[in-house]
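Work Package 3 (structural annotation) set out to generate three-dimensional models for the target panel prioritized at the project kickoff. During this period the team completed the workflow that converts sequence records into discrete structure tokens, so that structures can be stored uniformly alongside our sequence database. As a representative example, we reproduce one entry of 258 residues exactly as it appears in the project archive.
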Amino acid sequence: MRLCALLLALLASGSSHAEWRVVSGAAWPPVDAPLSHRKRTLESTTGRTIRAHLALFDSRRYQLEVLDLGADLASSSIWPQQAQAAGLLAAVNGGFFHADGQPLGLMIAAGQQVHRFETVKLLSGVLYSDTRGIHLERRNTFRLRAGITALLQAGPYLVERQQPVRGLSTNDVSRRTFVVTDWRRHWVLGVTRDGLTLAELAEVLTTPEALAPWPVERALNLDGGTSSGFWFAGVVGQEPIQVRSRRPVRNLVGVRPR
């Protein structure tokens, strides 16, 4: 009996989830607002504190872009300037890449395909843009077709049908980069300045109004850790908002007006 009770207690503790609350952050913009920036600080019942920078936008007014910085990673350390020169209004670091600078998985930038579609477990999602809008799909449902102008394979999937994806890592604590949507034209590109596990990130994203003003229907992890970076152009006359990557990156995910 004691052994059964102990096993039940361990299972219960292993399946418990932290609760998150917002410590600071400006009110969310109106649902029909233009591209907006928000900074949020959250705390969990387990003592974790995270700060996040978010770029919120409507896919009817803004289109997704993948900016290829090239395989010469040494030159990508100035990517905020490159994002600005490319006409992007906001950007985060994009997908994973090999040591030689080649993308991990398929990348399409400016309509040009780079590398190949891969089926490794990590790359569980596909983020892409075409004439119909912006899309986030599971790898096994995606079909490559003409008309896609921007695409990245990344992963893992964090949220699906407003629920955290099961089996996400509870061990690796790192800064995170992510993209989320309510699947009703509203999107967020985000970066955390503090470390958390993938399971914790999924918990935060499904906490009402923690990192998005609407219920998150789908969310995808991008390359995080020391690659995590954020850039927001802001309004004329003000300095851009930046979170610099601690290492070079291969590509960016950004937005520009339609």
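DSSP finds three helices and 18 strands in the chain.
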